[in-house]
Each structure stands twice: as C-alpha cells, then as structure tokens.
Amino acid sequence: MSLENTTQPETESLANDPAIETPETIIETRDLNVWYDETQALRDISMEIPERKVTALIGPSGCGKSTFLRCVNRMNDLIDAARVEGEVRLQGKNVYDDDVDPVALRRAVGMVFQEPNPFPKSIYDNVAYGLRVQGKDDNLDEKVETALRRAALWDEVSDQLDSSGLDLSGGQQQRLCIARAIAPDPEVVLMDEPASALDPVATSKIEDLIEDLASEYTVVIVTHNMQQAARISDRTAVFLTGGELVEYGDTEKIFENPEHQRVEDYITGKFG
After folding, report:
1. Please, what CATH class does the domain formed by 25-117+186-267 belong to?
2. pTM of the prediction?
C-alpha cells in the first residue's frame, strides 16, 4: 500500500528469542470510538491483529462487529451519520490521517460482504475489474487464473470464463467475490459474514478457503456462527452489547477458558 509516512508501530517485539516466530501486528486500533448520530457503536476499542492469521469477531447482533470491520478500510466514511474517533493503524500508519487516500486504502484492504455481489459481467471481467482499475492489467490472464485458483474456483469455471458471474451458484458467486477481492493482491481481506447466506456444503468450502488464504493474507471475519469461529480462526474478539470489546485472545483459550463470565455466558448460550 502506498501511504505516505508509513512507519512501523512503536512497539517492542513480543518475542525476545529470535528462534520464536511471533506474527507481526498488521492492524492496531487505539481507543477507537464510533457513533452513528448520537448512538455509540464502539467504545474505546484497542487491539492488535496479527498478519497472516484469521481473526474472528463474534458477538450478538448490534454489538459493533461490522462497524469495527468497516473502520479498517474506512467504509464508514460513506455513512453521513458516522463519526470516528481514535486510531486505526495499518502497518503503523493511522488510516484516518489526512494524507491517507481512502481509495488507495481500500486497494490494500479488500472486502467481502455477506451477500454475494458479483458484477453483471463475465467471470473473467469480475476478477479483472480491480486489476484494470488499478492499472495492473499486464499479464491479465495469468493474474485472473491465479486469483481463481486461490479462491478454489478455477477448476469449476475455467471453461466458462466468458459466462456471467450471475449464473453461478451462491457459493460459487461468493468465491468469485473473494477472487475479485484478492486479485489485486491486498494486504488484508475483510469478510462480513461471508457464509451466512450459503448452504452447509458451500459454507464448508468457504471455511476451507479462508484457512488457505491465511497463508498469504491477513483475514478478519465477522461471524455469528461461533462454531465457525472456533474452527477457522487463530484469534477471536468477543464484542458484547454497547460496542464493548470484552475479551480478545487465542481462539482456543476464548472458547475453552475465557477470562470473563460474560464471555462464557455468551459462548454457552446463556445470553445473546
């Protein structure tokens, strides 16, 4: 991402032993607060998200998960009622600094939405769209194929690239949207409940794909499906009513031995 004055965060490495590989922090929020008019959606959120891992955001409806996600690539800028305070740092650079171009930011931080939303174009043109917009149209055939392979879709569509993306099944459409998001080679891929509209078979394919993508990309996913979060994520953030981040840590610990009673109550279904 070409952001001016990009620096690494002023934090010490968590691993003093060079033999121990500790993931670098790629996203860091500091005292992040968000309002929609007079309603506060996020309250003092400070957290660090490691690169090339899957981080799941869970919690009841209306607790701020999607709002947090949309702060990372400044999608909340598109909502007139939204007001953001605090910092969201991508590789040490606050994305809300005046010298940050939101369009350039969204090239570095791809987004996949809840409902599959392929363009009314061919499969090929769907994947090539972002590459063409960014002027990365050299070796286009190769880049389109690579993205479709990474999205585990190439074998299913390689002989129908000129067909409309709208003719694909729901699960295929969502994988096409993932291919479109990763084709320009972003640093981060945000996913807002990417499997909630899909059947169990398609959901399983999306989950397998997310785990594979984490070898090359940082993935942050919002999900209402706690079993899904437990299956595919490395770290989990639990948001509860009022936009509060109650607990954040390794997924296994969050689900097996949470520190807060409210988190245990939510995970075991006592509320939420």
Report:
1. alpha beta
2. 0.89
